[in-house]
TrEMBL record:
This is CDP-diacylglycerol--glycerol-3-phosphate 3-phosphatidyltransferase. It comes from Paenibacillus soyae. One of its GO terms (molecular function) is CDP-diacylglycerol-glycerol-3-phosphate 3-phosphatidyltransferase activity. One of its GO terms (cellular component) is plasma membrane. This protein catalyzes the committed step to the synthesis of the acidic phospholipids. It is found in: Cell membrane. Keywords: Cell membrane, Lipid biosynthesis, Lipid metabolism, Membrane, Phospholipid biosynthesis, Phospholipid metabolism, Transferase, Transmembrane, Transmembrane helix.
Length: 191
């Protein structure tokens, strides 16, 4: 258990903490000014989500820099990412902050690409993250943060950035999924 794997595990352990603040009805009060209001629960969940999401690049960087890449890390890192995004998306649907269709598109793509990665591993190859996959991750994280903080500061000027980011994330997610399958079609048995 090296430092990179510990950071990845910390990301996994932060998921239920975020869920606690989003879904458990513990009212810590809210922050309000003008027509904008946000609960302290959401602020705390957003801060923890940002910390957890930022560890994604950190664990990989540490593993590569220190030459401590392990099979456990290769397994846990994408799992941690998917758990974090899926859990928060499902919570946001439960809170009526995002469309269930967007959550289904994003989570389905993650399952499909994970399945393709497993096939690649069985064939003895590793699928590297594509540029589209990195863009997908960046826009998903941006979307989730915007939804968690009630579209602040855009809500102050009635600009639906959170909804635009949500649909953009869905489109880029689908495109990046198609890109993975097209580039790795040789892995898919067609018999």
């Amino acid at each position: 258990m090296n430092l990179a794997n510990k950071i990845t595990l910390a990301r996994i352990f932060l998921v239920p903490v975020i869920m606690f603040f989003l879904l458990i009805k513990v009212n810590l009060g809210s922050l309000a000014f003008n027509d904008f209001e946000i609960s302290y629960n959401q602020i705390i969940a957003a801060i923890i989500f940002i910390i957890a999401a930022s560890t994604d690049g950190l664990d990989g960087y540490i593993a590569r820099k220190n030459k401590i890449v392990t099979n456990l890390g290769k397994l846990l890192d994408p799992l941690a990412d998917k758990l974090l995004v899926a859990a928060v998306l499902i919570s946001l649907v439960e809170m009526d902050k995002t469309n269930a269709l967007i959550a289904i598109i994003i989570i389905s793509r993650e399952f499909a690409v994970t399945g393709l990665r497993q096939i690649a591993l069985l064939e003895g190859s590793v699928m590297a993250a594509s540029a589209w996959g990195k863009w997908k991750t960046a826009i998903q994280i941006t979307m989730i943060i915007a939804l968690l903080i009630n579209n602040f500061p855009f809500a102050l000027i009635d600009f639906p950035f959170d909804q635009i980011a949500s649909w953009a994330a869905a489109v880029i997610t689908v495109y990046s999924g198609i890109d993975y399958f097209v580039k790795n079609k040789h892995l898919i048995p067609v018999e």
